[in-house]
Amino acid sequence: MMFRPLVFAALTALCTLAVAADPPPVVTYSKKAKFEDVRDDLKTAIESKGLVIDYQSHINTMLERTGKDVGSTRRVYVDAQAFIFCSAALSRKTMEADAANVSMCPYAITVYATVQQPDTSHVAYKRPWRRDGSAASKAALKEVEVLLDGIARTSLGMK
Question: What Å distances lie between residue 4 and 14, 16, 155, CA to CA?
Answer without folding.
Answer: 15, 18, 53
